[in-house]
Amino acid sequence: MSGAGGTGAPDQYGLVGHPVAHSWSPFIHGMFARATAQNLSYRLFDVAERDFRRETLELFAGGIRGLNVTLPHKQAAAELVNELTPRAARAQAVNTIAFFDDSTLLGENTDGIGLVVDLERNLGVEIADRRVLILGAGGAARGVLGPLLEREPRAMVIANRTAARAAELAAEFADLAQVIGLSFGDLPATPFDLVINATSASLKGEMPPIDPGVIGEHSVCYDMAYGRSPTPFTRWARERGAARVFKGWGMLVEQAAESFLLWRGIRPDTRPVLDALSREDSNG
Length: 284
Ligand code: ATR
Fold this sequence. Notes:
Blueprint: E1 11-17, H1 25-36, E2 40-46, H2 52-61, E3 66-69, H3 74-80, E4 83-84, H4 86-91, E5 96-99, E6 105-108, H5 111-122, E7 131-135, H6 139-150, E8 155-160, H7 163-172, E9 179-183, E10 194-197, E11 220-223, H8 232-239, E12 244-246, H9 249-264, H10 271-278
Parallel strand pairs: 1-2, 1-3, 4-6, 7-8, 7-10, 8-9, 10-11, 11-12
Antiparallel strand pairs: 3-5, 5-6
Helix pairs in contact: 1-9, 5-6, 5-9
The chain binds 2'-monophosphoadenosine-5'-diphosphate.
């Protein structure tokens, strides 16, 4: 780790995705680097789907030491690397790549651990022995399912617009726990303790068609999407009387801290970054 506290050229890191222009990751990793005295730079790389493999390999050949990977490349990244951590292998999706001196490209997925740390440590939300509903069965849901199941919830239901994708994802994790996959329309109208929106509907300003009966007065609702304003899901959850409603800022920061740990061997304190980002939020 040549950049640790050094004054030479910074070690280079970044984020590959499409689009990436509005990403908070350079801000977050910049704060982490200053707080831990790590000499590193973090840049954004907007890469189209068809160019992902070639351009990512070029970045590593050009000296980049680690990359975060976001939409739409997380599954392609799992195919690109030469080694997967157990979590990434389980998810078949990668959000962090580390390039080691022996030329190994290691793929990790820190999304799920980031979500679990945010829920449990930052927000005081229990997962163990709770009834959990995940909306969505794409890459985002895939990334968080394993770490959520490790906490041993009492029930885990995946509901998706396309029922077959929910059933497939549930089957992939059936060796860990009983997981039920169904369509939005087949959701029972009984309250869940924790409802996590892992669809990309919020990004399009849309709300999945969910029976309001899944929200009770004790329900906690978490949108993995984040932004300054309320999302359609957080607005809907508040209107239905959920006990607590959150956007995904904390998951964003905690997954970044886990990536930083893999790259630099230090897990930065996330509290100052969480505080800085909460000042950006309109509290929706
Ligand atoms: P990601 O990596 O963000 O999960 P993805 O693999 O394209 O991206 O998956 C997007 C998820 O959001 C899917 O669960 C998708 O439902 P389908 O599997 O039926 O496509 C869901 N989704 C996207 N737009 C939605 C909308 N407007 N309403 C409900 N679900 C939506």
